[in-house]
Specification:
By secondary structure, the chain is of the alpha/beta class. The chain folds into two domains: 10-35 and 155-297, Rossmann fold, CATH 3.40.50.1100; 40-145, Rossmann fold. The protein has helices at residues 16-21, 40-54, 69-81, 100-107, 117-120, 126-136, 148-155, 176-182, 200-210, 235-248, 257-269, 290-297, and strands at 10-13, 24-28, 59-64, 84-90, 111-115, 138-140, 167-172, 190-195, 219-222, 278-282. The strands form two sheets. It has a six-stranded mixed sheet. A four-stranded parallel sheet has the order 5-4-3-6, with helices on both faces. Helix 7 (148-155) crosses helix 8 (176-182).
Length: 304
């Protein structure tokens, strides 16, 4: 029931910069894995939903911000696979009509619980989680979907790649995708995660908790392309995203995948990716958030 039998495509990118450096770049189009449960969210939710079904749980409870890809995907997945869903949303001033993401989650049947930013800080507290688990008789999935079951699903991406590569890259929000990729790599390969938010120590700790010690050296988090923090951007980033779409027909979002590809190109330009290497960039989806981003900032990015 939770299987996606068709591997997502691996698209070769042709670009003068890449040619000049002898670098082979492919985009793993996980944004095409499903129309609603896209990218790493499908991978992260898969084994969590299987576990919830095995436990006989009917309610999925999870956490996220106002534009959360994870909230949107969880609501859609719960609707499709016959669960009820509850989303604990950061921001007591919000409601189900605040933006397209929350509107869609609500339309998919998710009960939205809006909490203050202070209360939201308790989302990992064992006492707080147990209180919600008992009150709602729910299976709880952490923010961003990142837990050990999530890394199991993400690791399956590597089984779909029939190409020898040196680096695989992904955006990093909660660390589950990077940990999942690194856990399946050979010693000569490395996963590069491009941080989408501030907090160097925080992200490193999150990945370390999800990744066995023998795989820690097979990943690295790059903190140079946050553009000021989560959901922050500038005209240079927006111009790059639009230019990449015009040239290659692949939409990127400004919160995660746009920052990753921008950073990857900049590292290639500066020689931080060695010449002659083969790189795979994982497109983790997240395009649903573009509608709200355009609405907020008066832009017209493609992909919403």
């Amino acid at each position: 029931m939770f299987e996606n039998s068709n591997p997502t495509p691996l698209v070769a990118i042709s670009d003068p910069l890449l040619s000049s450096k002898g670098i082979s770049l492919h985009i793993k189009r996980d944004d095409l894995i499903d129309t609603e449960i896209t990218g790493n969210k499908w991978r992260k939710l898969k084994y969590n939903l299987i576990k919830a079904r095995e436990q006989g749980t009917e309610i999925i409870l999870t956490f996220g911000g106002a534009y959360s890809n994870h909230i949107a995907a969880t609501a859609a997945a719960a609707k499709r696979f016959g669960f009820q869903s509850i989303g604990v949303i950061r921001g007591e001033e919000l409601n189900e009509n605040s933006n397209p993401t929350l509107q869609k989650a609500h339309a998919d049947g998710m009960q939205l619980l809006f909490v203050s930013r202070a209360d939201y800080l308790f989302r990992t507290s064992p006492h707080w989680l147990n209180m919600h688990r008992q009150e709602y008789a729910a299976y709880i999935i952490p923010e961003g979907g990142s837990n050990h079951l999530a890394t199991q699903g993400v690791r399956e991406i590597l089984h779909e790649i029939d190409l020898e590569f040196d680096y695989i890259t992904c955006p990093v929000g909660t660390g589950g995708t990077l940990a999942g990729l690194a856990s399946g790599l050979h010693p000569h390969q490395k996963a590069l995660g491009f941080a989408a938010l501030m907090g160097e120590d925080y992200l490193e700790k999150e990945v370390a908790q999800l990744l066995a010690p023998e795989f820690q050296s097979r990943q690295e988090i790059i903190h140079d392309y946050q553009f000021g923090g989560y959901a922050k951007h500038n005209p240079e980033l927006i111009s790059f995203i639009q230019g990449f779409y015009d040239q290659h027909g692949i939409p990127l979002d400004p919160i995660y995948t746009g920052k990753m590809v921008f950073g990857l190109y900049d590292m290639i330009k500066k020689g931080k990716i060695e010449e002659g290497k083969t790189v795979i960039a994982l497109h983790t989806g997240g395009l649903q958030g573009i509608a709200g981003f355009n609405e907020t900032f008066g832009l017209n990015l493609v992909g919403s």
